[in-house]
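User
Please review the sequence:
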Amino acid sequence: MADWASFWAMGGYASYVWSAYGIAAAVITLNVVLPVWYHRGLKRRIRRGAFIDD
């Protein structure tokens, strides 16, 4: 790479490359956050005594 500008432009494919990185980061983040969120809600329901799925 001659300079940083050419690195960030990635030969004209930057929009495809960086959007793929962004989508992958979003999916990985959701794969971590959603189960934690669900688990917290489940623990809250168990503490309240709401065992039956309404």
